[in-house]
Amino acid sequence: MSTRARPRAPVSSRSGSAAPPARAAGHAGKVATRRRRRLFVTGVVLAVLLAAAYGVAASPLLAVDHVRIRGLDRLTSADIENAGGVHPGDAMVWIDTGAAVQGIEALPYVRDASLTREWPRTVRITVHERTPAAWVDGPGAKALVDGTGRVLELVYAVPPGMPQLLGVKLVPAPGGTVDAVGAARVAGTLHGVAAAETTSIEATDHGVVMKLASGPEIRLGAPTHIGVKLRAALAVLGASADVPVAYVDVSVPTNPVAG
């Protein structure tokens, strides 16, 4: 009996799940081709959609037909449209409301403004204008200012019944603010007869002083509690109608002094 071992059969290294190299490469190429095709189709669809959206946005069917503006007194509709960059014929969807309002509020006479789109074709703008309260003497012309000291415009003829601010060192261009803000604040509280009877308002080292067309000067002190101080001054003037006085000091309105 032979004891020599029988040779073993060779072990196959082939795996049942592995694909031949050539077949795997072909499959990967097909996947890449399909991916590129999908990307191309997606890009074409997006381009078509964007072009359609732009066409609709720029269409005359969505253009501004009416610009409705309210609140104007000294300004014109053209002033507001040019400052805001909004005109009939503009595309409704491209209007930058923030930039438009910012441009309008940069006008010296505008205190604040708002803009709304009323679809499909109307833009509504509401403006609140500033009111001139006094005038200052500038180097080349006179300037109208409001109750905050903002320069509104330059004029050569002063409107009647408007006091002058004295002691102003620098008169900036329209849109700027004078350095006599306290005096301007007092002027902004005056209306009717009080404004017409006041010839000048000056901010001094000792406070704000009002000079009347006929009567004593009124020393207000700090430009605070202006309404209370003016009522106190009127009460003193009424009580001393038969006694000539040079001034009425209401810097402490609960303890007015006449002299």
**Number of separate structural domains:** 3
CATH domain class of the largest domain: Alpha Beta
Strand order, main sheet: write it out. Answer: 7-8-9-10-11-12
- Oligomeric grouping of the chains: single chain
* CATH architectural arrangement of the largest domain: 3-Layer(aba) Sandwich
- Beta-strand fraction estimate: 15-25%
Major β-sheet profile: 6 strands, mixed
What Rg do the Cα atoms give?
40 Å
Which bin fits the share of residues in helices?
A: 25-40%
Number of helices: 6
Averaged pLDDT, please?
84
N/C terminus separation: 152 Å
CATH topology tier name of the largest domain: Rossmann fold
Tell me how many strands there are. 12
- H-E order: HEHHEEEEEEHHEEEHEE
Structure at a glance:
By secondary structure, this protein is of the alpha/beta class.
Describe this protein's structure.
- The chain has 259 residues and is an alpha/beta fold.
- The protein has 3 domains: 26-57; 60-129, Ubiquitin-like (UB roll) (Roll); 134-258, 3-Layer(aba) Sandwich (Rossmann fold), CATH 3.40.50.10960.
- The chain is 32% helix and 24% strand.
- It is built from 6 helices and 12 strands.
- The protein has helices at residues 21-57, 77-84, 97-105, 181-189, 192-197, 226-239; strands at residues 66-70, 110-118, 122-129, 134-137, 142-145, 151-155, 164-166, 198-204, 207-212, 217-221, 247-249, 257-258.
- It has a 6-stranded mixed sheet. Strands 1-3-2 form a 3-stranded mixed sheet, covered by helices on one side. A 3-stranded antiparallel sheet has the order 4-5-6.
- Helix 2 (77-84) packs across helix 3 (97-105).
- The radius of gyration is 40 Å and the shape is elongated.
- The model is unreliable at 11-16 and 47-60 (pLDDT under 50).
